[in-house]
Amino acid sequence: MPYQDELGNQLWFAGEDHPYWAIENVRYEDETNRIYGNLNLAYDFNDWLRADLRIGGDVFTTNSQGFDEKGIRSNGNASTAGAGGLRERELFSRDINSYLTVTGDRQMGEDFRLTATIGNEVIANYDRRLEAVGLGIVVPGFENLKNFLTYNPSGELVKRRLMGFFGDFVVDYKNYLTLNVKGRNDFSSTLTKENRSIFYPAVAVSFVPTQAFPSLAGDVLTSAKIRANIGQVGKGAGVYNTLTYWEQADAADGFGSTIVNFPFNGLAGYTYDNVAGKFDLKPEFTREIEVGTELSFFGDRLYLDASVYRRDTRNLIFPVLMPGSSGFTSAITNAGKLSTKGLEVLLSGSPVAGQNFKWESTLNFTTFRTMVEELSPGVERLTIGGFTSPNTQAVVGQQYGLIYSTDYRRDDQGRMIIGRNGLPLTAPGVSATGNPNPKFTMGFTNNFSYKAFNLSFLVDWKHKGDILSRTVGDLRIQGVSAETAEYPRFNEDGTANKPYLFEGVLEDGRTNDIYVTAQDYWGLRGKYVAWAGYVRDASFVKLREATLSYNLPQELLARTSFIKALQLSVYGRNLITYAPNYPDLDPEQNLQGISNSRGLEFGIQPVARTIGASLRATF
After folding, report:
1. pTM for this structure?
2. DSSP for residue 606
3. 173 to each of 55, 183, 202, 211, 365, how far by Cα in Å?
């Protein structure tokens, strides 16, 4: 069917753009030019003293252009629904790093060996962004800023520099007792002169009893190592967090659309940023204590590495909510303390090691629990990410990052309270409705070799960890998810089928016995009347990747004088996902990307399964 008339206007009943019209008229392109590399220099003063200098750089420019034709109904590239727009961006980024070390490694008599390293590191980042938005197209189809009625230019400049000096000293006694002492002092440009010096030390001790007492080693125990360490790491703030800056005033609806109100009559308007800076911001520190062991058995056929740790983070740098009457919505500050207790286990070995067939396997196990110990005085909770509801929060006395949202009404026993129509009632305010932190994660890697063939695969398992999935909810609300068609819509006599019952009690305390239709159960009046209904257990088992390879025989390659090895492989990634409580989607998606906030998912795209082949040659 036609989707536009002879003038290019959309012939589409809905409020959004017709997909084919959007392909032709909502366009985006970008180009990146990049140069990067590094230079390594080394000088040996003698046989035990060496200097190394590494200098690296990464410089790139990205130019992009997004064009929205007149008649667009969505926000598009320039958030100018109806009028058309053009957004042009230029990003220049330059990262320069240098790393200098002087290392001495010398035997001191028969029993002691001393290794000492002193060094310096410099990290310099520079980013500049320029943007121009043209609003209100004059001549349709002409992609040029001069072809628009008004312009909104903007620019951003970010500079950051870190300079660090460090020392690392290791004393080894007879290869079985080792003491490692290290310290580092950083100077961060993101803090004021009074606070930018960040010193953090560490001490580690290891003991190898099978080396100290050789009789301990035998047919079962091959080697053993015990280690313990305590250390601290410090870091500065984000850029420009110590002051409050002016910005050009505008208004928005929270979903990307901008209400163009400045400049007004040729006059610009400026306002303080909604986030207030803090001049005396201090660095953030993390201290960790770890105790672990490394054990090898049966002639190194079986290996175990296990450790327990406690990690405490203090002076956390967070935006703390403020009342709007202050003129700000939040203020950057050192906002409290987190503590984490965890266990990590690595088990690897070779169950089969024959002449033609070999099986190698590795099992990884990790579990941890992070608690919010304290926040700023007078602050009991911080919103980490999300919306007014739902969001993720740090609340004193609770696990870090719990999901908070509207919930169902419940009685003193936690039972859902059902209305007279058989549908759940909602509770006022918001409460904790989900925990995105997993109970544990596990990875299982296997590698099988038979003559010239090799098969390897990785299976990942995450147990528990909730996600509030808007997409799963929307699929069910629209009736396009398979589980919504579990029962016929009508009975044989033509009456509406009511197969669903919400478990709970009525307002008078009686057990709910009012059945509802699929439409009511899966709709916005039923399961999804509160955001708590969108929370899903995101446990999964995933075949993350698999590779089958074949090495061509040397007899065949001998016919050529330049190819030493040739390997043919087929591989796959994201092959199988089993998530029994999380249908239709990938349970690893996160609305807020790589951040401190996890557990919210809104409108994600399907994740691709990748299957391919490769040919690798060695000359």
Report:
1. 0.83
2. P
3. 35, 21, 19, 11, 33
